[in-house]
Amino acid sequence: MVEWTDFERATIQDIFSKMDYEVVGPAALSRCLIVYPWTQRYFGNFGNLYNAAAIMGNPMVAKHGTTILNSLERGVKNMDNIKETYAELSKLHSEKLRVDPDNFKLLSDCLTIVVAAQLGKAFTGEVQAAFQKFMAVVVSSLGRQYY
Amino acid sequence: MTTLSAKDKEVVKAFWAKVSGKGEQIGTDAVARMLTVYPQTKTYFSHWKDQSPSSPSVRKHGITVMAGVGDAVTKIDDLKGGLLSLSELHAFTLRVDPANFKILSHNIMVVMAIMFPKDFTPEVHVAMDKFLAAVSLALAEKYR
């Protein structure tokens, strides 16, 4: 089981409680599709992903970005149970969506950059460490049910 | 991975022109973050008395690293050739595992996002990511 310090728990709760999922989600997902264009392979039915402007204006990308953040919130609310929280989603990503788990880390890195830009100086090294630890646990749980 | 397109080089040079004035600050914060967020990187600095983020050693090293990045921008058309001696330094003397170049690159970009949130757009992000990856590759050139 993952051990969380008081600082880490408080930091994660704080970051997500102040976050506007409808801004951060779309920003993180579109950034991922732009910076790591091979991730677009999973979004063939999303329409126009032809260039950065199209991606950033794409309503399906925006909606899915928000969905992802809402899903992350479940992990935030169940920090002592993240593996179980994402067991079903892991199966979905493995069996139905067939997403290479390496991609989870790419999206996670983009989310880190977006959160960093939002929080500015408040995103200290210690806060970054806590955030990245949380994301690493989520990413690991998402890859857990692959076989 | 991929070579830098003309557009990538343009974007990198333009963004670097904007931010190079804060190079020392970027470097110091990036190195400090790396040591905090990825504690395994501290193993390369056991010779420092003080490994804390505010130590003068961290600042000095951040300045050194960022000067290297700035130099790489001027040699963007031939990174392998231009960074040859730096590669030899990292290969034979420092022997830093190249996986760590990725870690430091990530932290450099986090700091850029913090300090220049409006300028570090997705287009700048992808060009910078490619550039730092190309620099890392050039640094690893002489390893084996």
UniProtKB/TrEMBL annotation, chain A:
The keyword Hydrolase does not apply. The keyword Transport applies. It comes from Zoarces viviparus (Viviparous eelpout). GO terms for cellular component: blood microparticle; haptoglobin-hemoglobin complex; hemoglobin complex. Residues 3-147 form the Globin domain. Gene3D superfamilies: Globins. One of its GO terms (biological process) is hydrogen peroxide catabolic process. Belongs to the globin family. One of its GO terms (molecular function) is peroxidase activity. It comes from the Eukaryota. This is Globin domain-containing protein. Keywords: Heme, Iron, Metal-binding, Oxygen transport, Transport. InterPro entries: Globin, Globin-like_sf, Globin/Proto, Hemoglobin_b, Hemoglobin_oxygen_transport. Pfam families: Globin.
TrEMBL record, chain B:
Residues 3-144 form the Globin domain. One of its GO terms (molecular function) is metal ion binding. PANTHER family: HEMOGLOBIN FAMILY MEMBER, HEMOGLOBIN SUBUNIT ZETA. GO terms for biological process: hydrogen peroxide catabolic process. Belongs to the globin family. This is Globin domain-containing protein. It comes from Zoarces viviparus. Pfam families: Globin. The keyword Disulfide bond does not apply. Keywords: Heme, Iron, Metal-binding, Oxygen transport, Transport. One of its GO terms (cellular component) is hemoglobin complex. The keyword Transport applies.
